[in-house]
Design goal:
Largest sheet of chain A: 9 strands, mixed
Radius of gyration of chain A: 24 Å
Oligomer: homodimer
Number of strands of chain A: 23
CATH superfamily of the largest domain in chain A: Bira Bifunctional Protein, Domain 2
Largest interface: A-B, 55 and 56 residues
Strand content of chain A: 25-35%
Distance between the termini of chain A: 20 Å
Helix content of chain A: 25-40%
Structural class of chain A: alpha+beta
Number of domains of chain A: 2
Shape of chain A: globular
Chain lengths: 447, 447
């Protein structure tokens, strides 16, 4: 993309309403614009990141064998009366009447609707296990929305639902989600720690939240320092193997890690003192096993191998897709702006032309642009007639992990400059080597 | 995908509520399930098609230089009061109050919000031309929703908005959209004819609807038969060239083609009688130029080169993404089921194992599955223990354009059967040649 043809409305001033860094940078970098309280429009740069995160979630869900569907945002109140949650949900549920005076709502979650889909179409244990998920806009009418997309009212969320014959199978689905979420977050450059959590209005005993450590987190967290040494890495997991998934769960949840909601001081004190940590965390996902709560209430049964109808065991599992955009920024920024992890960066690298209009500089930039594009990469080329300082400041603010700087002086020596946003270190090298390096970083075969 | 691990709830009976073929087949093929009146859940097969269509739209919008954003579904009533449409819109607009008693609505279209984004961030003619678009769920509270996703209440739509300094530039944006839509529909295997239309509540003089001819179309259409001979084909268009886009517009709109709303009997009679056609059509898109209607009402101005503030010229342009799923089926089916065009098929080909459990047949199917997957293609492998007739009927119903049938008898002679869903013709050939043919059809390099 050429910046002269893009829509990147960067702000010079920090908007006064933004209290946390992700909100400030998302507004300043032209990623979002508030439409009304807690409701945002995603401008081009923000939408690109949102879509990258969405795609990673889809890919990792597919890898785990989960199947994508899409449920509507508007639901009839009827199903929610069947489960008993229509009255229980309170004012966070946005309710309305349609033109025929029927009670409708903007779905905050979809246990009822997916259970209805299941009971309408699945009748035998032979069709299990089954996990359906969607990525869809949700609405929760927060009384005091704040922190930008971190606690908005309309938000984009992955919500998945497993249906299993037995508790054991459903707990495997739970573990499978835990494994898949670890992979998902790591691909986004995040360390998200599973912590024992409180089940809230979804119900159920087994639940973990995934928390990203950040000073601005809304939860106080308590954990054993050993836990931050764990990484999922590139290990290959057979998602069908109960044992392999169970082993990952044990590895990542056996050490103490809890939020203030479930914190147990006595247990925490059993952790050696030098490893006890208190910090703040941002919740970016949660998994639940809640057994037959909804299947019994709504008659979602299957015939088992003896022909008896039994209610299925279920769980639900969420990833806050739009919230992750904020969480990643909270975890990865400096005082100049955002620092995108390579996995979610809106553009793979920036190209800064130090002397727009100079024939040689323009030509070198165009050649870099063409070569990177041919590799299937998306560069953002700042081709505006601006001074270098403004171009650098803009690139630092929007946080592309790599920048290639092209100027007449370097070109005389046959080199351009490759700069890492994270470390700030620069290196002069011939353009074709810069391309090779970028290709390598993103795992593309050089052409 | 292996069918044994998929969720494809095919119905044997035709649901009685479905009056048109696309609705019937979408229900029977397990693509959608009604959640409430005019509101559908997209089951896995339906969601895959929806997503393919969405991706084609994104790709073609990017090619035309249009920039993707995402606006919220819930909007405050305030902006709509500013444009004067809040009261004008009537009962089709779904309205509600949030917990703080503020008037909200589920957006049926987004001229107001996008104009607000524009006026907040753009101030100079130098930032023009600019076209922003989104693909987002919309809601129109149809009094009598019917025909499945063709006239639902919650629907998925691409809506794009151009901002230009002059009428001439805005008309170029109009033409550019027309060109881009022609390409978009053709990639989906559709012939969509631009017809002069009525502007309705959006306002404006210049507007064309794109109609797909189909017996079940809601509009009566009148056209010169020559128009159906036109194809956009693989021509390369410079979307920046006013002349090139204008030429396409003239080519595709100079012959008589109108819906009943704008039909002019006298003009129609000037078409030679043997070329006069009356038919029915499904609207799958519409483009508008409406000038300064919203920019004046909402103060969306830029400084021109003399420093004077002038209201921008705008247009809006829509593609009915979820409706297209139905329209494609209306245009492409037979009495056995759907026939997907290659561009939007949910899976690239089916693999039918005639003797599940037979070592050789299973092995050959697995090898085909692995080879096709390695090419980046998605086969659907019917690995269930079902009789051949049921497998064929299922494949015919869901409409994958190509099927590879594998059985012990063929394998003895070293062949499998490759069948075209559209023509019904089959050919016996060695497995590796079948793969090569499929790869060729989808433009993949053989491995």
């Amino acid at each position: 993309m050429r910046l002269s043809r893009y829509f990147l409305p960067v702000l010079k001033e920090t908007p006064s309403e933004a209290q946390i860094v992700s909100h400030r940078y998302m507004l300043r970098a032209g990623m979002i614009k508030q439409a009304s309280a807690g409701i945002y429009s995603w401008l081009p740069l923000g939408f690109k990141v949102l879509r990258k995160i969405e795609n990673i979630v889809h890919e990792e869900q597919a890898r785990a064998g989960h199947i994508a569907i899409q449920m509507p945002t508007m639901q009839s109140a009827d199903l929610w009366r069947e489960s008993g949650r229509y009255d229980a949900y309170g004012q966070e549920m946005l309710r309305m009447k349609d033109r025929h005076d029927r009670d409708m709502l903007f779905t905050p979650t979809a246990e009822e609707l997916v259970t209805d889909i299941f009971r309408s179409h699945v009748g035998s244990y032979k069709d299990l296990p089954l996990t359906l998920y969607q990525i869809q806009w949700k609405f929760r009418d927060e009384i005091r929305p704040r922190f930008g997309v971190m606690r908005g009212r309309e938000f984009y969320m992955k919500d998945g639902y497993n249906f299993d014959l037995t508790k054991e199978d459903a707990l495997h689905a739970y573990n499978r989600h835990l494994v898949s979420y670890l992979r998902t977050y790591e691909r986004m450059g995040l360390q998200a720690i599973p912590m024992r959590a409180d089940s809230g209005p979804i119900g159920g005993d087994n639940t973990h939240e995934f928390l990203v450590l950040a000073d601005t987190g809304e939860s106080e967290v308590f954990y054993d320092a050993q836990i931050t040494d764990l990484t999922f890495g590139s290990r290959e997991i057979d998602y069908d193997s109960h044992a392999e998934c169970q082993a990952v769960l044990e590895e990542f949840t056996s050490r103490y890690a809890r939020t203030d909601e479930t914190h147990d001081e006595a247990l925490f004190n059993e952790v050696p003192e030098e490893r006890r940590r208190t910090a703040r965390g941002i919740e970016v996902g949660q998994i639940f096993y809640f057994g037959t709560k909804y299947s019994e209430a709504m008659g979602a049964t299957v015939a088992d191998s003896d022909g008896n109808r039994v209610p299925v065991h279920m769980g639900s599992h969420g990833i806050g897709v739009s919230r992750l955009v904020g969480a990643i920024i909270e975890a990865s920024h400096d005082d100049k702006g955002i620092i995108w992890p390579e996995g979610v960066t809106p553009f793979h690298c920036g190209i800064v032309n130090l002397k727009q209009g100079d024939e040689e500089a323009d030509g070198a930039c165009e050649a870099l642009y063409a070569s990177l594009t041919a590799l299937g990469l998306e560069p953002l080329y700042d081709d505006r007639n601006e001074r270098a300082g403004a171009k650098f400041a803009g690139m630092d603010l929007i946080g592309l992990p790599w920048r290639i700087t092209v100027g007449p002086r370097g070109l005389k020596n046959g080199v351009v400059e490759l700069t890492s946003r994270r470390t700030g270190t620069s290196e002069e090298l011939p353009p074709e080597q810069a391309i090779e390096r970028i290709a390598q970083i993103y795992g593309r075969a050089a052409v």
